[in-house]
Amino acid sequence: MKSKLEQYVENIVRHTESSKKEKEDLYDELLIHLQISRDYLMEEEGLTPEKAEEKAMQLFGLEGEIGSQIQQALFPYRKELMLTLAISSILFTIGVYLSSLFVEGDAYIVWLCISMSLSTMLLLLPLNQHFHINRKLWLNGLLVLHTLGQLYGWLITSLLDQSMTVVGLTIWVWLNIALSISLVYRTTIYDYSSDEKYIKILHGMNITSGIIISGMSLFLIVGGLIMIGQYHFMMVIFASPIAIWVGMYAVQLKLVKKNKRIAFVIGMIPIAACILIFLWLYAPVLFFR
């Protein structure tokens, strides 16, 4: 059974978002430091081992606060970028909603609630010090959903008649989207990947192809909604490339440590599909102008 000191150090480490090896090294380093502090208190103040452990932990600080400080030292400025993105997205959502309401007379209440909820979660996640979650999974999932929500906000913006308002909001939303995508890259490739270069390349390939595929699928789905005006079975077909990409990404992550070559071959399929679609759409324009 683990001692209170070991559980305390474990809780601190859980608040950080390093790789498994880095967490193990951090755990050992913190445990040794606190054991030295405990032994010192036992010798100098004559405390029992239990009392010395409690005082050593008390002097060191709260787990959440210490973990957040270590996290900030390991990955500087990411917390500030997350907070900036969240606040900027909240203000953009309010701006689009009010512009659409007073200029066009349309109230996009559902989008307002969804976008505000996603932005608020992005605001609260970096500030969390009280419970442990798989931050990698939650953060990437939120960033992807947030990007899709901001893209829908851009579509709403494009329907406005006032040109100056459209230009300002368009620049604003694409800055939000660029920051969101860059945080996805940073989180997946830098903050959590192992030091093996080929895994980082594989993640980069999949994120890039996933952004392109998701963007094209969303464009087709929204275009279908605008033209048809209601849900149609074709929209499920338009969304299917996203599901296929997710499945292929999961397969690659399972295979990469066993058979790197096959994993990379599978990873090239979505990229090749994106290139072929691009050539199919734009080759006539490029070669027969």
Describe the structure.
The protein has 289 residues and is mainly α. It has three domains: 66 residues, no CATH class; 117 residues, no CATH class; 96 residues, no CATH class. The chain is 83% helix and 0% strand. It contains eleven helices and no strands. α10 crosses α11.
Jot down its keywords.
single chain, 289 residues, mainly alpha, 3 domains, 11 helices, 83% helix, flat
Distance between the termini: 75 Å
Q: How many β-strand stretches?
A: 0
Structural class per helix/strand content?
A: mainly alpha
Tell me the series of helices and strands, N- to C-terminal.
Answer: HHHHHHHHHHH
Sum up the overall morphology in one term: flat
Poorly predicted tracts of residues: none
Strand content: under 5%
Helix content: over 70%
| Main sheet properties | none
- Number of helical segments with 4 or more residues: 11
Mean pLDDT value: 80
Radius of gyration from the alpha-carbon trace, in angstroms: 24 Å
